[in-house]
Design a protein that fits this description.
The chain is an alpha+beta fold. The chain has 2 domains: 60 residues; 85 residues, PH-domain like (Roll). The strands form 2 sheets. Strands 1-2-3-4 form a 4-stranded antiparallel β-sheet. The longest helix is centred in the middle third of the chain and has 30 residues. The relative contact order is 0.13.
Amino acid sequence: MPESNFSNSNVTIEQLPTISKLEQQPLSERYAPINRVINLSVILVVCFIASFIYLQPFVDLPAGLQSFLPYFTWAVACLGALFTWFIYAGDNVKSYALRDLDLHYSSGLFFRKVVSQPITRIQHMELKRGPIERKIGIAKLQVFSAGGEMHTFEIPGLPVERAQQIRQFILQHKDVVKHG
């Protein structure tokens, strides 16, 4: 039987790279505050609609609904404020890291999540910008993995120029890594 050049050596724990030593880059400083304003706006609209229904003089409300609406409004306001704080605090810990061979995205306030994608497995990327994001100059970078129909992960709150630079780097670097 001919001798093969195939090698599959053991890797020791000491040889493994550590994720904590990645140079994590923060998202745009404009991302978290605008996200907080959007969340609070939605909560205020829901509270306003519930208050309007409760206080409107045009239609007599059933007694059960009339007694329920003030509690509902307060519950939405309190839970909404708590949810907005949670989203805001979570936005402040989101970060990303780009290296020669991979892209990482970290998120999660209580439950930390780190997604790592080898550059050679990135099929394509999309920049997404809604009207508010266009106004403040940020974008989401969606990364699509080879073999998947949905995006693998999304890095929100990137300055547009930086998102375009990352996208261009990966697209150019991907070909260099694959084809030498």
